[in-house]
Amino acid sequence: MNLKNIGKAIALSAMVASSLLASDVVKIGVQAPITGEYANEGQSIDNFVRLIVEEKNAAGGLLGKQIEVVTCDDEAKAQKAAVCAKKLANEGVIAVIGSYTSGATEAAQTTYFRNKILQTSDGTSDSLISQKYWTFFRNSFPNSSQSDFTAEYMVNAKKYKNIVVLSDYSSYSEGLGDATAASIKALGGNVIYRGKIKSGTQNFTAMLTKVKSMNPDVIYYSGYYTDGGLLRAQQAQLQIDADFVGGDSNDNPDFYKLAGNSAEGTVLINFPTPEILPYPEAKKYLAAYKAKFQMDPPSIWPVTNADGLRAVIEGVEKTNSFDTKKISDYIRTMKDFPGITGPFNIREDGERVGAKFVVYKMKNDGTKDVVSE
Fold first, then answer.
1. φ, ψ for residue 242 (rounded to 5)?
2. Which tens digit of pLDDT belongs to each residue from 287-343?
3. Most CB atoms closer than 10 Å: which of 32, 157, 208, 262?
4. Cα(210)–Cα(192) distance, rounded to whole angstroms?
5. Residues 18-41 pLDDT 10s
6. What's the 3-state SS for the chain?
7. Mind spelling out the 3-state secondary structure of 183-224?
């Protein structure tokens, strides 16, 4: 064999080896805000995915293939999310975990659908299932279920007479604010003002001064902790004598940092937080997370995303296939899959059902007490 043929043989061997190596790997994508204002959430989502994958790979992988995690930082921005979707599709992932925000999730949905890539997100905006893409399923619960619970708490349990509802302009926050206002009115409650803030503004005194003149009993805020903590602090500075109730995305350790001493007495409405989840899977995986990363997840959202990945893995194993349509069909027929966050059931339209919410009251030491379930 001459040198030219030897070179061809070596090149062919390398190609075959590369092909065999690729066939032994299945890729899972993570689309999350690894940097930016929600970085602690995005990094924890990525951490939890890698924890689950590490466990699976140590047990032999997925249908004999090792799982490779491919992460793309969308910074919780729609434009970045669209870029991530194309990147992850080009990488050949079969499923994507994320994103953290509804807006970033929605910006990527069509690309994943066109490429037959599964996508699961904690985004709660009701619009996420409006397209009814078979590729999408939610690992949390929708705004509509939270809004009904919140209205019941404020109107019937607390009997607030004058309620202010605030949101930012994101699809998640605006949707939850609108749904909560509608649920309050449906119960006969009185929404005296429905206002919106620009997220990231940091100084909300103009809005809060307007709210103060209305003498509300309670201010409800449906946006993220990055603004919610500041709203609470500035409410105290302006001496607005009203309770403060925050939606689920205010439930983050950074709320305490931003609100300072004003965090005391703040009410949050969310799923049961990780440390009080009563399920065997929760005790197992949360202990493993803390042991590996030397911290707890910052909120429930990395945990629901971990359940989304576990549902995908279950679908692959039960169908014995990497065909994403078969996996999607199976996930929509699972009954009470034992999730870290509780029984996991997905409707035909991709909606998670069986929501359970909890009311917490915050304390200045960074802890919170359950006041009702």
1. -150, 150
2. 999 999 999 999 999 999 999 999 999 999 999 999 999 999 999 999 999 999 999
3. 32
4. 12
5. 443 457 999 999 999 999 999 999
6. CCHHHHHHHHHHHHHHHHHHHHHCEEEEEEEECCCCCCHHHHHHHHHHHHHHHHHHHHCCCECCEEEEEEEEECCCCHHHHHHHHHHHHHHCCCEEECCCCHHHHHHHHHHHHHCCCEEEECCCCHHHHCCCCCCEEECCCCHHHHHHHHHHHHHHHCCCCCEEEEECCCHHHHHHHHHHHHHHHHCCCCEEEEEECCCCCCCCHHHHHHHHCCCCCEEEECCCHHHHHHHHHHHHHCCCCCEEEECHHHCCHHHHHHHHHHHCCCEEEECCCHHHCCCHHHHHHHHHHHHHHCCCCCCCHHHHHHHHHHHHHHHHHHHCCCCHHHHHHHHCCCCCEEECCEEECECCCCCECCCCCEEEEECCCCCEEEEEC
7. HHHHCCCCEEEEEECCCCCCCCHHHHHHHHCCCCCEEEECCC
Contacts of 191 (CB under 8 A, 6+ apart): 163, 164, 165, 181, 184, 185
Instruction: For residue 233, count CB atoms less than 10 angstroms from its CB and return exposed for 0-12, middle for 13-18, buried for 19 or more.
Output: middle
Paired strand residues for 191:
163
- pTM for the predicted model, two decimal places: 0.85
Spell out the residues 6+ positions from residue 76 whose beta carbon is closer than 8 angstroms to its own: 33, 36, 37, 38, 42, 99, 100, 101, 103, 104
Which residue shows structure tokens 């993220």? Answer: 224
Tally of CA atoms within 13 A in the half-sphere of 260 that contains its CB: 7
Bridge pairing between strands 368-372 and 358-362: antiparallel
**Spatial separation of the C-alpha atoms in residues 140 and 76, rounded to whole Å:** 17
Contact, 147 vs 176, CB < 8 A? yes
HSE-CB of 82 using CA atoms within 13 angstroms: 4
The answer to whether the bond into 213 is cis (omega within 30° of 0) is no
Give dist(CA 265, CA 363) in Å, integer.
6
